[in-house]
Amino acid sequence: MHPDIEKVLFTEEEVHQRVKELADQINRDYAGTEVVLVCILRGSYIFTADLSRYLTVPTTIDFMSVSSYGSGTVSTGAIQVKKDLSDDPAGKHLILVEDILDTGNTLFALKNLLLHRKAASIRICTLLNKPSRREKSINADYVGYEVPNSFVVGYGMDYNEHYRNLPFVGVLKPSVYGGE
Ligand code: XMP
Ligand code: MG
Question: What is the pLDDT of residues 6-17, one digit of tens each?
Answer without folding.
Answer: 999 999 999 999
